[in-house]
Design brief:
The chain has two domains: 2-162, no CATH class; 237-370, Histidine kinase-like ATPase, C-terminal domain (Heat Shock Protein 90, 2-Layer Sandwich), CATH 3.30.565. Strands 1-2-3-5-4 form a five-stranded mixed sheet. With 370 residues, it is an alpha+beta fold. The protein contains twelve helices and five strands. β4 (351-356) and β5 (362-368) form a beta hairpin. The longest helix has 61 residues, at 131-191. It is rod-shaped.
Length: 370
């Protein structure tokens, strides 16, 4: 709105400069009027651009000087005795009313426009303007104020709507972030604390065994951190270290794990964490369902599929057991397999696949990238 009203004023000043140069070369008061109008316009709009909005005192000065006093000064001392010689100063009232409409509050806008209408009607009467000229000019003056006010009202309304939409979007994003954080905590609890409690409740291991007590202590510490902080920031983790942690945790619950690693690459922390957590849940499933007490974990790295060794890396982690297996057509994936394995891999751009058949054991393959 500053730029729009400034360009409106610039068009009026251009008319004034041309008009004075053509009609009033011998009238120094006319030139002084142009210089006054230009100087006040530079003050009003220069300050507005520098500060980001209009200064109300300066807008009132513009209305009073350019809109009201200048036409009478030209009539009294500048030789303006007919409408054509006074017209360039009169049109400045239109841009003065437009600036007032956006810079002043509603009551003061009405007062400024009423003052401009009254003084311009008197001014045109003083130079003998016809009723058509007076009515047309006053209509232009009022229209300038009304259109500027409507544009300004519309922009503010659209700004409020945009602010409301942004606030709703931020609220929805915060809600999604909180849900994602809760979901990640639920997955971690399912894969650690719940797995330990389930094993203890089944009576399959000695709760007083040192390795079981050590695991319970680790998971109690995890629960304590979970209560005390909500940040999901993770320390940097090597993929081999992350996998070894879940292997040791599984062995602490009396599952024998044969683990092999080969050429593991550097991967982002979130990828290492997701692969390790998904592998940990696969080992939990072996312990709970396979009935063999023995699992095989293999992790290998290499170039992406179809690549001869260029940029990037591929990681494949497999967890295999030699248990009874199951019929995939008749099996509905449970919470652990669905959320802790498939969903985790999908979130990092990876893929999880389960290969099994009755009597053939189960092979879970975790691949990143997909």
């Amino acid at each position: 709105m500053i730029l729009a009203t400034m360009l409106y004023r610039a068009s009026h000043l251009a008319i004034g400069v041309v008009g004075v140069a053509q009609r009033h070369r011998d009238q120094p008061v006319q030139y002084a009027g142009v210089v006054t109008a230009v100087g006040l316009s530079v003050l009003v709009y220069g300050t507005a651009l520098r500060r980001g909005w209009f200064v109300r005192r300066q807008v009132w000065a513009d209305v009073l000087v350019c809109g009201c006093l200048l036409p009478f000064a030209l009539w009294a001392w500048g030789g303006a005795r007919e409408p054509a010689t006074l017209g360039w100063a009169m049109i400045l009232g239109g841009s003065a009313s437009a600036a007032a409409a956006v810079a002043l509050d509603r009551v003061r806008v009405l007062a400024a426009v009423a003052l401009l209408v009254a003084t311009h009607a008197v001014g045109y009467q003083a130079v003998g303007a016809s009723p058509a000229v007076v009515v047309g000019h006053l209509n232009s003056l009022l229209s300038s104020a009304v259109m500027a006010w409507v544009f300004w009202w519309y922009l503010r309304r659209q700004g409020r709507l945009l602010d409301d939409a942004n606030a709703r979007a931020l609220s929805a994003e915060a809600h999604r972030a909180r849900y994602a954080e809760r979901l990640e905590h639920h997955r971690a609890l399912h894969d650690t604390v719940l797995a330990t409690l389930t094993t203890l409740s089944s009576g399959g291991i000695d709760a007083n065994a040192p390795e079981v007590r050590e695991r319970c202590a680790r998971e109690a510490a995890y629960l304590r951190r979970l209560v005390q902080q909500t940040s999901d920031e993770l320390p940097h983790r090597e993929i081999g270290t992350a996998l070894e942690e879940v292997v040791r945790a599984a062995e602490g619950l009396r599952l024998k794990v044969t683990a092999r690693y080969h050429a593991l690459p550097q991967v982002p922390t979130e990828v290492a964490t997701a692969l390790a957590d998904a592998a940990g849940e696969a080992l939990n499933n072996v312990r709970r369902h396979a009935g063999t007490g023995h699992a095989f974990l293999t992790a290998t790295g290499g170039p992406p599929d179809g690549d001869d060794g260029g940029a990037g890396a591929r990681v494949v982690v497999t967890v295999v057991d030699r248990g009874p297996g199951f019929d995939p057509e008749r099996y509905t994936p449970g919470l652990g397999l669905r959320r802790s394995v498939h969903d985790r891999m999908a979130e990092i751009g990876g893929h999880a696949a389960v290969d099994t058949a009755p009597g053939e054991g189960v092979r879970v393959e975790l691949r990143w990238p997909k």
